[in-house]
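Record filed here:
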Amino acid sequence: MLLAQKNDRAVYHGSTDGGASWNVDYTLGLSTQAVDYTSCNSDTLSAGGGYFVAAYVDLNGDSVTVRRGVIGNLGLTQHKRNSYASTGILSPVCAIYKSGSDKYSALAYSGFGPTNVFFNMENLITGITQTGTTIPARYELQQNYPNPFNPMTNVEFAIPQSAFVKLTVFDILGRVVETLVNEQLSSGTYKADWNAANHPSGVYFYRLTAGDFSDAKKMILIK
């Protein structure tokens, strides 16, 4: 990742081929007052999404904004990870690391003044596993299980031929909150896990798109 500030906004340039080619000017900050930011990505566990995290001071130092996801789709913006305002002078720091097949993100920043250091850690989605290699007869998206759930659930789906597959979770307002799958997959059956520990109770929807196929279902998170 390459980070920059353009027209007073935080932007980044991303490469998925080791720097041979670049996509540029993805916007991080929606405010014109974004003042500082940093990011780190996990290129060793990109399957399942959630491998890129960005953090930056926004709203003239009032908030720390954290976004996570994949290149070009960082999902729902999350402001101010706690009740303490950030300094507008020092950059926050963030990182993604893995433990087994699980991914985690960590964030730290200096308070206003600057005084004190605040930190937060988030559990990211656990990824995707192939559960069968027999060629399915058709595309299929299963109901998540368990449902209702707290906070873990999994979604099983089948694809009869190789395709670029995207499995996305939306909230009741239609906003993307997680991208569980965003990659080319061979034919077979798969299971994607979602850890919703950082999301509030409520109704969510998940949509699978693969080739010309598209289907969506509802799930309920109860805490």
